[in-house]
Amino acid sequence: MKLVKAVIKPFKLEEVKEALADIGIEGMTVTEVKGFGRQKGHTEIYRGSEYTVDFLPKVMVEIVVDDADAEKTTEAIVKAAKTGKIGDGKVFVIPVESATRIRTDETGSEAL
Amino acid sequence: MKIKKYLLALLLSSSAFLMAGSLGAQEAPVEDVVEAIEEAVVDPAAEAALVAATEISLAPAKATVAAMEAKYGADSDEAGYAQGYLDILEGQGEWAFAFDFFTVSMLWTVIAAALVFIMHLGFATLEAGLTQSKNTVNILFKNVFIISIGLVTYAVIGFNTHYPGDFNGWISFGSMIGDLNDGANTFGYGGAGLAMTGFGDFIFQAMFAATAATIVSGAVAERVKLGSFMIFATLLVGIAYPVVGSWHWGGGWLGGLSDGAGFKDFAGSAVVHAFGGFAALACVILLGPRAGKYVDGKIRPILGHSMPLATIGVFLLFLGWFGFNGGSVLSADPSGIGLVFTTTALAAAAGALGAILVSWVFLKKPDLSMALNGILAGLVGITSCADIVSVMGSLVVGLIAGVIVVFSIIFFDKIKIDDPVGAISVHGICGVFGILVIPFVNISDDKFTFIGQLTGVLAVAAAAFIFSIIVFGILKVTIGIRVSPEEEAEGLDIGEHGQEAYPDFSSSSR
To answer: A47 contacts in B (CB within 8 Å)?
Structure first.
């Protein structure tokens, strides 16, 4: 099993979710996160004083899939989240040791 | 029979009138006239004339009672209702003739008092919005305490210190209020210039009193030690505010300014707002800036946690200000109320536009918090003069106040006076501006001089500043005025109250 972990622009979440649903992904966990890559931050003004915001808001999507599905999952996310502008985010694929569904005690691929 | 009595009274009253007229016609020396009038006062004929005049006011009600009794019987509900109204009217004594105006005015006064009360909710949400979420409970707590202690101290000592009657013009501590309906529940309490009962007068002024301490609350937010602030706020609203207020509204020494025209401060730009603003300045100087605000000579803004809360607060203050200024007409005088509502609203609007323009041009962005401060700046500016400016004058006052407040906030930030909500600029600086602008926008017949206005507002501001430096200074060297750096970092909600405004992962959450 693989954990596909994508950091994307928040407004792309809906499109990514739909793209994943289209390829049969049945569940995911999303988190509001902050961070920066090569995009870096930007400056804002509060009551006359400028300040830099280094950490920009992003959304992290986490999905655990069978090894065979990791590639098409990644492709689907990349396709849906792409704007072509800096700050689109990244997708990571990480091996997963085990998975257990709490309600039924199922493990492995059965639990996904 | 009764009609005969009225005719007799009318005859008597007209003869008294003629007598008074003939006194004037004789062109007698002043002393003689005064003597004659004094005699006339005890003259049974004059007495009877007044009784007769009062009977005229009571006549419709009395006639109706009689008619009701005749038609429905003396024990009927109808007769009882009519008698009930007659009793109220007769309770007004010789002032029964003004009953309708007096009643409407009194009603407006208590509505205005309730509007001023809502300003305290406005202050609470504005201050909470412009500070960090970790200090929200603390801010709200202070606001709850201030309105409570303000009302109580105003009853115990404030009102009679604020309005001592005959006094030396500087200071006279009053006692607790008693039954203010006793002898002060008719139009005779203050005439058209103060058309309300003693209780109406008290509750309207009581709602004002806590404002001064609330202004300080915002400026010292996020680092002041709660206990010290509560002691300071109590002394400020209980003693300093009514004493300084008595200089102006209590008939004190400020009334001698401007060659006798007096000090013009309609609803309290000086005695409420500049007073609070300069008390806040003194406290912030003693307290120092919040940790992390000024690092390596640079300003690092500490963001307020809720602009929606701040905006709600300013709109509530805007609403409440109609009571603050409108109620300060002190009667339901139609021309006065209409003018004051209009000038107040226009100044607030112009203040917002001024601040928006300046922040957009000089700060490159249209800053919401500055626009909000601009509304308040316009309101504070017009508070001194809402009843004596033209429509154009109110726009000018508001616009300039809105411009001033932006530069003032930036200036205080530059000199490291850390005021999270801009209270010193809004209330202190714009309060002073509102007082000093009067000689230039005044369209009334009274001539208020610049020197007179300057003297008055300097005296009020200096008194607030010095009182606060002394009292807050004593607290600083004794019990301390600032929380520990650890507590400041963790937030005063946990440190002072052991409570969070926005609890996450608590056992009670889903």
So the answer is: 301, 367, 369-370, 409, 413, 422
Task: Report the alpha-carbon angle B485-B487-B490, nearest 5.
Answer: 110
Instruction: Return residues 420-449 of B near A (CB < 8 Å).
Output: 422
Averaged pLDDT, B419-441: 97
- Helix axes B198-209 and B99-129, enclosed angle (nearest 10): 10
pLDDT band at B282 (very low <50, low <70, confident <90, very high): very high
CB-based contact A45 B406, cutoff 8 Å: no
| B406 contacts chain A (CB < 8 A) | yes
Is residue B5 less than 8 Å (CB to CB) from chain A?
Answer: no
Contact A48 B300 (CB under 8 A): no
Q: Do A47 and B300 touch (CB under 8 A)?
A: no
Dihedral of CA atoms B422, B428, B432, B434 in degrees, nearest 10, equals 50
Q: What is the C-alpha end-to-end distance of chain B, expressed in Å?
A: 82
Nearest CA in chain A to B362: A48
Task: Name the residue of chain A whose CA is nearest to B373's CA.
Answer: A47
Q: Report, as an integer, the average pLDDT of B438-451.
A: 95
Residue B466, exposed/middle/buried by CB under 10 A (0-12, 13-18, 19+)? middle
| Domain extents in chain A | 2-111
Handedness of CA B177, B183, B187, B189 (dihedral sign): negative
Q: What is the mean pLDDT of residues B436-450?
A: 95
Please say whether the beta carbons of A64 and A1 come within 8 A.
yes
How far is it between the farthest Cα atoms of chain A? 58
Helix, strand, or coil (residue B167): coil
Rounded (10°) CA dihedral B119, B121, B123, B129:
-140
Please state the length of chain B: 510
In the predicted structure, residue B142 carries a pLDDT above the cut 50: yes
d(CA B85, CA B480) in angstroms, rounded, equals 59
Identify the band that residue B6 occupies on the pLDDT scale cut at 50, 70 and 90.
Answer: very low
CATH number, span A2-111 = 3.30.70.120
A48 to chain B, any CB pair closer than 8 A? The answer is yes
Whole-complex ipTM: 0.77
Decide if pLDDT at B470 tops 80.
yes
Cβ-defined contact of A46 to B303 (cutoff 8 Å): yes
Cβ-defined contact of B364 to A45 (cutoff 8 Å): yes
Q: From CA A47, how far away is CA A29, in angstroms rounded?
A: 37
Per-residue pLDDT band for A38 (boundaries 50, 70, 90) equals: confident
Most A CBs within 10 A among B132, B293, B295, B303, hence the mutation to make, goes to: B303
Task: State mean pLDDT over B475-489.
Answer: 97
Contact B413 A46 (CB under 8 A): no
Structural domain B98-497, CATH architecture = Orthogonal Bundle (1.10)
CA distance A44 to B304: 14
Q: How confident is the model at residue B418 (pLDDT cuts 50, 70, 90)?
A: very high
